[in-house]
Each structure stands twice: as C-alpha cells, then as structure tokens.
Please model this.
Amino acid sequence: MTAFDYAGRLDRARRQMAERKVDVLLASVGSDLPYLTGYRAMPLERLTMAVIPQQGEPILVIPELEAARVATDAGTFSVRSWSETDDVISLVAGLIGGASTAMITDQTWAVFLLALQEALPGTAFRSARPVTEALRIIKEPAEIELLRRAGSSADTVAGLLAAHRFAGKSEARVSREIAGLLEENGTDVAGFAIVASGPNGASPHHEPGERVIREGDAIVIDFGGTVGGYGSDTTRMFHVGEPPARYREVHEIVRAAQRAAIDTVAPGVPAESVDAAARKVITAAGYGDYFIHRTGHGIGLDGHEDPYIVAGNDQLLDVGMAFSIEPGIYLPGEFGIRIEDIVICTEAGADRLNRSPRSVAIVD
Ligand code: ZN
Ligand code: ZN
Ligand code: ZN
Model:
C-alpha cells in the first residue's frame, strides 16, 4: 500500500476553498473521496460523505456497516457512523450548519444533493471540481510511480499479445485472455480490454462480442487495468497475416500523428494544441473526417479525467500531468487504427509510460 500525504492534500484543498470563499467541501462516491481521505465508498444507496470545513475537523459520515472498512489511523478526519434508522440528511445538514457556500463532488448521487438543498435553503451548492481538479491533475511522484507500474504491466501484455494466437477465437474470448494476462503480469485489477476485429475496428469503443477472428483481420486492442488504484490504457494494432498496403499506409499516418502530438507536449502548451498537432497530420493525409474523437484524456484514479486533450480546451499543460495520446482513423466497413500511449508532462516534454513497439504486430 502506498502511503500518500493526505494531510498535505487536505491543506491544499483548504487553501483552494479559502481562495474561492467556500465554507465546506462535501465528497461522496467517486475518486475525489479516496484522493482526499484514502477511503473509497461503495456506490450504495446509503450515504457516505466527507464533510470538510474550510477550518475545523473533517468528518467522514458513513453507514455503520461500512465503518469497519475505514482505516482511522490516517488521523486526518474523524468518523461518524449512522445506523439504518438514523436520518442521515439531518445529520449531514447539521454538520454543514450555517455554511453559505458548499462545494460538492461531481459524482455524488443527485438524490442526496437534492435532499441537502431542501434541508439547507440558505446554502449555495457548487461543483467541487475546480478544487479537486486543481489537486488531482498534477500527479505526485508516488502517483506517477503507480501509473508507471500500470503502464509497464500493460507493455508486458502487449509484448505477449504479439506472439498470441487470435485466429479461430472470438473477440470476447481474447478479451478475457487479456484480462488474465494483465493480472498475471503486475496489474492488480484488469479494467477493460476492447478487442475489435475486422470492420468492428471502425467503432472506437466496440464491445468485444462473438465475432470469430480470422485470417486477414485487422484487430484493434485497447486495454488497461489498475495498480494501487492508478490506471493503464494503451492501444496497439494486430493483423492476422500480412496486412494490405492500404492498411500499412493508414497505420503510418496514425503513427506519425501520434508522434507529432507527443512531440508537442511541454509545460505551458495548451491542451488543444496537442490535439491540433495530431489532427493536422491526419487531415493533411486526407483522413480528417475519419478521426472522430479527441486526441486524449487525463488518467489517474479515474480512467478518464482532466486534462482532456481536445479542441477548445485552452488549459495549459504542466509538469506532473498524466494523459493519453490516442489518435485514430476509422473507416466504416473496413477497419480502424488507433495508437495510444500514456505520457507524463515533464520539463523535458512528454515522458512515455508505454514503451511497447508501436508497429503493427503480425499474428496467427
Ligand atoms: Zn476510449
Ligand atoms: Zn484506451
Ligand atoms: Zn484512452
């Protein structure tokens, strides 16, 4: 278990709250709560909520039956458990008290926010995202280390897949095999494995199904899992037998686009410029209409988080940000090609966490 500096995170959150004149921050299900406290709530209908005042002791309100899962030795907050017959909304409303402005984490169930708003008509509720994002978007060295381990486990699996047998197996079966390989090779929890063969590759988030892979198929494999809660996410291309010239050509374009985007990464560069760099290469090659998604997304405790590498996001990249670079070209009815790596923004530019070969792997 990695020991994070939760007290330091709380201090930084409180400084952000003070700057924004926020009296209390409320964190429920989702990744903001474990980021701030080390405790991840099950997404239950029973309310778990950290009440973090700008000054004074943070309190974690938790269903009695969950209390045993909380490690209280962190010492940064106290625990208030509630039993099945308690009115938990009154309990939390009492802790919020006369706060004029409360921030609440984005993934809190709407039902609880609505009940709190009704109980506290004098309190203005705002999204906590400006505060939690400001903290979570810059990864600490211990977080980068976990992302690196997750990435290297995925790379090991990419290497094994280059020697894997695909022909005659369904996409769903290969997807399960990849999950097994991840967990045998350093990933704690396999998260997802998109296996999109032949024309299915033209659908970026294809759900692996019963289609049986055969000679001549192109295969998009996009997979990842977590180490210590931090994710991997990489995409590599496989081809059963020699690919046709056109496939090679499109693959080279995507590879060049990915390289151009990665070369653009540096502190102070707007996120949208990285997207533009990839898009420019693909558009110049005549495939602009077939690059149908943003170039990337941040990664950390969530598989998709800030910063989003997308046109319109003028947020400046900074040292310690972690995100994917994953341009693609999707030709309906034919095939799809995407190449994805996770990078860390450093003073010297992008540090790739994925090092497995980006060439097409020719497989059986
Ligand atoms: Zn995706
Ligand atoms: Zn992916
Ligand atoms: Zn991704």
Observations:
- The two ends are 40 Å apart (CA to CA).
